[in-house]
Structures are given as structure tokens and as C-alpha cells.
């Protein structure tokens, strides 16, 4: 029997030990004459993990998550045929961050490695890419997909939307080909509106003008909720073309950018909140890894079980959105 199904074998998470609560950000922005209490309530924040030393970064977090997921899967680096490293805050641009992971886990010389960047949509898109690539390549049986961002490095201390909202973390997933039926990757759908390309920018002036010296993200005020009606259309189309309804989905792992956006999607579909995995109050917004951290926490709590249908949805700067279906 051909091994065409691509299953999520294991998922692991790494985050710094340092926890920063809302109180810190209340006081920080009060000095600027801002009261951000309502803002953090809308975003759904309480705590977040923030790097507080000069030893941790996007790469170290990604490597730690990779080592954890390999241990959980009882695999070694030699078992990995593909490494995708998704990040919007790369520790290195030359060579790839995936190169450092390859070295750290002792992967073999035929391993395919690649850094990817679809901003906050990156890790979900990378899992989709890896799954589809594995389905067409007989030589690739096991993939390691990592999503990691040290967002605190570029969060703007004068903008609550990044400084008080974003956080640091990494997630890692092992994908495997399997002969098991009724499991694995189902389908995905994308939506891009490039007219919003200048709303969230880093570096604001581009590397050619700044010579690589830029401190913070430039996040222009705009209504992020404008994407939600299109997101609902995407989800409806994805489900319909796979013969499913919203009630057939067991768990939802959405972008943790804003609690208010998740509630808008919930209200549109009249979803049971118990099916939605929410971790933004504990983790803050970890950008590329956020839907996979939802998966990790859902599995850990027992809310997501083998055989469950899981729907992922997330959005990246620009904007670009992806919705993806998996039978876990």
C-alpha cells in the first residue's frame, strides 16, 4: 500500500521562563499617557513569555523545540528528510536557520533544508507545503517543521499593538507518511490582499536604506477585523469542497493575534466555544507558531485526540491568510 497520508506525529513547544504580566505594560504605557487596559482585554492578554537574557533568541528556541519533538517522537536527526524553519525574526539570514538546526540534531547529508517566511501565517503554511511536497516525493518520509520568533527583539515600546501584545516562543512538528487510513492532511486554502502591504513593515525603510539598522516594527493603525468576513468565506469554501460542515470539526486552532477576532469567527459560525483552543491569555501572541501552540495545548489537555478533525486558520502581515484541515 502506498504511504500517501501525511500525519502529525508529534508537536512540541519551547518558550522562555520569564513571564511578564499585564501590570508591567499598564505601567509602561501610563508613562506615555496611555491607558491600555481595554486594549489588552480586547486582545485577550494576561501573561506572556519574554526573553530576558542575551543567550536566547529565535534560533535557540527553535533548536530546543526541535530537540523536544524528536525526543517525543523517539526519532533522531538521522530520521529527518526535510527541515523547514519558519520565522519573521530570523537570528541569521546567512546561512539559513534550518542549517543550524540540521547541525544541532545531526541530520543526514541528504536532508532538504529551507527557511520560510509568511510572517504570522508562516508555520501553518510551511506544514501545508511540507505535507504536499511529501505526498509527491518518494524520498521524503519524515519532516521537521519549526516555527520560532523572538518578537520582543523588534516590538516597538511606543506601540502597544506589538510591545504589549507580542511574545516569544517556538513550536516544532514532526510530519510522517503513514499507511493509516482516516488520518493526516486533508486540504488548505489561501487568501491574499496585497493592498495592505505597507500596514505592518520591518524594517520600515528596507535594508537598502537602513543598512540593516532598524530597531522596531512599524505597525500602522488599521482595522484588522476587516479580514474576518473573508476568513469565514475561506473556511466555508474549504469545508464545502471536502464534504464537511463546521459541525464536523472537532477543534479549532486559530491565530491568537486577537481574542476579539476569534470571537467574531465563533459568532459567525455559531461555534461551541469548547471546541476553540485559546492560549493567548497565557502565551501572548507568538506570531508564526500560535496555531501550533494551540494544537500542542489541545493535545496536552486531552481536548484534541487522535482521529479528531482540526481546522487551523491564521493571518500574516500584508495580509495573507491560510486555513488548513488535518485529521489528527
From TrEMBL:
Domain Beta-ketoacyl-[acyl-carrier-protein] synthase III N-terminal span(s) in chain numbering: 114-191
Highest taxon above the source species: Bacteria
Keywords: Acyltransferase, Transferase
Example GO biological process: secondary metabolite biosynthetic process
Gene3D superfamilies: 3.40.47.10
InterPro entries linked to this entry: ACP_syn_III_C, ACP_syn_III_N, Thiolase-like
The keyword Transferase is annotated on this UniProt entry: yes
Residues covered by the Beta-ketoacyl-[acyl-carrier-protein] synthase III C-terminal domain: 239-328
A Pfam family assignment: ACP_syn_III_C
Ranges that cross the membrane: none
GO molecular function: 3-oxoacyl-[acyl-carrier-protein] synthase activity
The protein's name: 3-oxoacyl-[acyl-carrier-protein] synthase-3
Organism: Gracilibacillus ureilyticus
Amino acid at each position: 500500500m502506498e504511504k500517501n497520508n501525511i500525519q502529525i506525529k508529534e508537536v512540541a513547544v519551547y518558550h522562555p521562563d520569564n513571564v511578564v504580566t499585564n501590570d508591567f505594560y499598564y505601567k509602561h504605557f501610563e508613562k506615555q499617557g496611555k491607558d491600555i487596559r481595554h486594549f489588552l482585554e480586547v486582545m485577550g492578554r494576561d501573561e506572556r513569555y519574554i526573553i530576558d537574557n542575551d543567550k536566547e533568541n529565535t534560533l535557540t528556541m527553535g533548536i530546543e523545540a526541535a530537540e523536544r519533538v524528536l525526543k517525543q517522537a523517539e526519532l533522531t536527526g538521522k530520521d529527518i528528510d526535510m527541515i523547514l524553519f519558519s520565522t519573521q525574526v530570523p537570528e541569521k539570514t546567512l546561512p539559513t536557520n534550518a542549517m543550524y538546526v540540521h547541525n544541532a540534531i545531526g541530520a543526514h547529508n541528504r536532508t532538504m533544508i529551507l527557511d520560510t517566511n509568511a510572517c504570522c501565517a508562516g508555520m501553518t503554511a510551511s506544514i501545508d507545503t511540507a505535507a504536499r511536497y511529501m505526498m509527491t516525493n518518494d524520498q521524503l518520509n519524515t519532516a521537521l517543521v519549526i516555527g520560532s520568533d523572538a518578537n520582543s527583539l523588534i516590538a516597538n515600546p511606543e506601540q502597544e499593538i506589538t510591545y504589549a501584545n507580542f511574545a516569544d516562543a517556538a513550536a516544532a512538528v514532526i510530519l510522517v507518511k503513514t499507511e493509516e487510513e482516516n488520518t493526516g492532511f486533508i486540504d488548505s486554502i489561501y487568501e491574499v490582499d496585497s493592498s495592505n502591504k505597507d500596514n505592518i513593515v520591518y524594517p520600515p525603510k528596507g535594508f537598502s536604506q537602513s543598512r540593516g539598522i532598524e530597531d522596531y516594527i512599524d505597525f500602522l493603525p488599521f482595522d484588522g477585523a476587516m479580514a474576518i468576513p473573508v476568513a469565514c468565506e475561506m473556511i466555508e469554501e474549504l469545508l464545502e469542497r471536502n464534504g464537511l460542515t463546521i459541525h464536523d470539526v472537532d477543534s479549532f486552532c486559530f491565530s491568537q493575534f486577537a481574542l476579539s477576532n476569534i470571537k467574531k469567527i465563533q459568532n459567525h459560525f455559531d461555534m461551541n466555544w469548547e471546541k476553540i483552543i485559546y492560549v493567548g491569555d497565557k502565551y501572548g501572541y507568538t506570531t508564526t507558531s500560535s496555531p501550533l501552540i494551540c494544537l500542542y495545548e489541545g493535545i496536552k489537555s486531552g481536548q484534541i485526540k487522535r482521529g479528531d478533525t482540526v481546522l487551523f486558520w491564521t493571518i500574516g502581515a500584508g495580509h495573507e491568510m491560510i486555513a488548513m484541515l488535518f485529521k489528527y
